[in-house]
Specification:
Helix 5 packs across helix 6 (about 110-125). Helix content is about 40%, strand content about 15%. The chain has helices spanning about 20-25, 45-50, 65-75, 80-85, 90-105, 110-125, 150-165, 175-180, 200-205, 210-220, 235-240; strands at about 35, 55-60, 170, 190-195, 230-235, 245-255, 260-265, 285. The N and C termini lie close together (about 10 Å). The protein folds into 2 domains: about 15-65 and about 175-285, Rossmann fold (3-Layer(aba) Sandwich), CATH 3.40.50.150; about 75-165, no CATH class. The chain is built from 11 helices and 8 strands. It is an alpha/beta fold. It is globular and about 55 Å long. Strands 3-2-1-4-5-7-6-8 form an 8-stranded mixed β-sheet. The structure holds S-adenosylmethionine (SAM). S-adenosylmethionine binds near residues 13, 14, 39, 41 and 44. It catalyses: a 2'-deoxyadenosine in DNA + S-adenosyl-L-methionine = an N(6)-methyl-2'-deoxyadenosine in DNA + S-adenosyl-L-homocysteine + H(+). GO terms for molecular function: methyltransferase activity. Belongs to the N(4)/N(6)-methyltransferase family. Keywords: Methyltransferase, S-adenosyl-L-methionine, Transferase. Its EC number is 2.1.1.72.
Length: about 290
């Protein structure tokens, strides 16, 4: 089981490829690098690389304004977030208030947006905003609203993020814009790109890429000289886009459904990965 450092539950979260990515960083003599995730989501992998000193600093970028609001609050105001968690009961009534703030955000402060998103992420089925409340509105299900809301554990995770905050940068750019910033070769910088899935993206996240966006991203990363790694669902459209690059297929086992997902890793030209591949032999639990 992978160690989860993120306070968010994230469909498709890539914490599970930590062993592979950490080996890759070591194999390429990049220990202590600046690690950048243009599509960071739950950022579980980034946090673990930081905590275990594979990265000296990390960039958590996500275009989704709610995801961004959450990370800003978590990194810049961890104490205020922790107080809110301590004081706020985990009830259907609070769930409804949070839902309403997300549905009708006019007049809501960034902090209110952040905590509403966080609360729904922890109390909705699979952590998806459209997923519906765990246990149902009448709480008649087997699991109840607080099944994934262990206050003490969540507070510990947020406290730790607070302790590392000077080494975490948060931004809300389009992923491609962020990539553009790292066009020039930087020996100490590593980009891991995990864009919305080609096939399932639109059901899981607020922002989804269309064919033209996936194509545009491939054109941008193809010109990058800074080393990068990209992950996707294994689809012929994506394979064709990156035909000039080395790729390796691997399997992810979704812990909620036990379904095996076919994914692919795509490597920039300057990266060596032979030693790290051993970490991808078994299906990785997501
Ligand atoms: C596959 S998820 C990333 C999951 C992440 N690697 C993790 O481990 O949790 C894709 C993320 O891209 C974000 N996203 C979608 N479109 C984007 C864009 N144009 N620019 C930046 N982020 C975007 C979504 O909000 C979502 O969080």
């Amino acid at each position: 089981m992978s160690i989860a450092h993120s306070p968010l539950r994230y469909p498709g979260g890539k914490n599970c490829i930590f062993s592979f990515v950490s080996c890759l960083i070591a194999e390429n003599d990049m220990l202590g690098c600046k690690y950048i995730e243009p599509y960071a989501g739950g950022a579980g992998l980034a946090l673990r690389l930081l905590y275990e000193e594979f990265a000296e600093s990390i960039v958590i970028n996500d275009l989704d304004p709610l995801v961004h609001a959450f990370w800003c609050t978590c990194v810049n105001e961890p104490g205020k977030l922790i107080e809110w968690i301590k004081e706020t009961p985990v009830t259907v009534s609070i769930w409804k208030q949070c839902k309403e703030i997300i549905r009708n955000p006019e007049g809501a402060s960034p902090f209110e947006m952040a905590v509403s998103f966080f609360f729904l992420n922890r109390t909705n089925v699979s952590g998806v905003l459209s997923g519906g409340i765990i246990g149902g509105v009448n709480q008649t299900g087997k699991y109840k609203i607080d099944a994934r809301y262990n206050k003490a554990a969540l507070i510990q995770k947020i406290e730790k993020i607070g302790r590392f905050s000077s080494r975490i940068e948060v931004s809300k750019l389009d992923g491609i814009k962020l990539v553009e910033k790292y066009k020039k070769y930087r020996a100490d910088t590593f980009l891991y790109l995990d864009p919305p899935y080609y096939e399932k993206g639109s059901n899981l996240y607020l922002n989804a890429y269309k064919d033209a966006d996936h194509t545009r991203l491939s054109e941008y990363v193809s010109t990058l000289s800074t080393p990068w790694l990209l992950s996707y669902d294994n689809h012929s459209f994506i394979i064709d886009l990156y035909n000039a690059f080395e790729k390796r297929a691997y399997k992810l086992q979704h812990s909620t459904s036990n379904k095996i997902g076919d994914e692919v890793l795509i490597f920039s030209r300057k990266i060596s990965f032979d030693k790290s591949l051993a970490m991808l032999r078994e299906p990785l639990i997501i």
